[in-house]
Each structure stands twice: as C-alpha cells, then as structure tokens.
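Q: I'm writing a short methods note and want an example of a predicted protein-small molecule complex. Could you take the sequence and the SMILES for zinc ion and return the bound structure as tokens? Please keep the output block clean; save any remarks for afterwards.
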Amino acid sequence: MMDCLHFMAPSDEELSSFVLDEEPMSPEAREHLEHCEICQQRLARYKQFHTSLVSRLYRCQCPSGTRISLYCAGLLAADEQMEIAAHLLLCPLCADEAADTRRFLAAVEPLPAPTISLRDTGRHLVATLVGPQMRLVRRGSAPATTWPRQYRAESIDLSLYLSRTSNGDYALLVIITSIHSAETANAFAGMAAELYSAPDPIASGDEGDKEDKQAETPLVCAEIDDVGNVVFSGVPAGKYILVVHLPERELVIEDLTIEPG
Ligand SMILES: [Zn+2]
Ligand SMILES: [Zn+2]
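A: Understood, no commentary inside the block.
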C-alpha cells in the first residue's frame, strides 16, 4: 500500500475507525482526503475490507447453497423449510440467492401460470388442529399454546411456525402440503392467504356470522409461493382467523391465537 506523507493525511487508525465505527474524521483530514488520490485509495481499501468482513459475518450463519436450492424446490423436511424461510426474512444475502435459484428453477421447468382467485372460493373447509399433541380440539376448548402447530382439512396439511422479529412482532410461516402426490405444492403458487383479526367472542356467538368475518378487511395478506409457503410478517400477538384460498376451496383456521411473550 502506498503511503501518503502529507502532514494532514489521516492515519491508518483514523481511517479504520471512520469506516468501522463511523467516527468522524478531523476537518483537516477530510479536507486533505478531498484532494489526495493516495488517501482516497487508502479509504477505498478500508471500505472494501469492511464490506467483506460484514458479509463473512452474515454468511457464517447462512445455510449452504445446496440447502437453499433444496428449499426452493420444496424438498426439505418441514422444520428445515421453516428454518430457512425464517433465515431468509433476516438475511438479504440468502434472500437474493433464493430469488436467483427460483428464477433458475422457473426457467428450467416452467410452472403453470398462477392465477389469483379471491372470490371464486368454492367449498369452505375448516381446518382442525391435529398437532403437536394429536389431541382433538373442539371449538370453544382452550386453544393450543405451543409451536409449531399442525392443522388438517381433508387432504391438505397446514404447518404453522412462529418466529419473533426484532421489533417485538411475529412472523407467521404457513407451509401448505397436500397428502396427494398429484397435487404438488406449486399448484398453490400465487393463491392468496389472509389473516383476519378474530371478532370479539361475545359478538360472534351465533352461526350466522361467517359472512361478517369474510366482509372484514384482512389484517395481513400474503401470496403462496411456489413451494407452498406463506409468510405473514409484522403480526402482533392476538387472536386471528386464517383463510387460505386454494383451487376450488378455501381453508379456514378459526381459532388461531398468538400469545404475547
Ligand atoms: Zn494523502
Ligand atoms: Zn444468510
């Protein structure tokens, strides 16, 4: 590295604390930097070093490229799918990589063009909780309090995972799988899923309240991706109704509670 011998040149310490700790440089050093090519190069080298340091820090917690590819193809076990989906919410580097992989997969094996059909909902199916304890939960009984949760309606399994985000909200991940191998996860790609705030239990005592629930505006809307995952982010603790629109039917989880804390 060439050295600048000018008496106002910023020292190595000054440059590195400017780049790493965002410490302001002295006015003399800043003024000198504007005119000195050597010192501009020294600064650029520190910045480059900093960037590679940051990306290495990020990457040591990242899943391998192979696992990201398997994730994009929907080939991992449900808990691994969820682990990577949660990581992608936090890591811009892996999110980019996953986006690239999806583009690649789409080019190799064109997916059927998805169509969003919101109101053409067909049959209304209520998904019931089947796990983790495999106990039968009737309406009105105490809701489950552990995660992940497993729901089923006819041939469709819904796995729900919760992860806490840094601002205190939650990210809710729903993995949709069909027990029929003919109905692959990408058959649901592009369909809509919605999270509604549950109405006050006192106000929704009778059976005729279904239309009322559906007429409300959803709190969060999301689209099912091409491996059958849906992520609702920025969800506060509370009681919810989850509606998943699938071809010719809609699945509903009526008593979804996200406990605070
Ligand atoms: Zn200089
Ligand atoms: Zn990552």
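A: Remarks, as requested: The mean pLDDT is 77. DSSP finds seven helices and ten strands in the chain.
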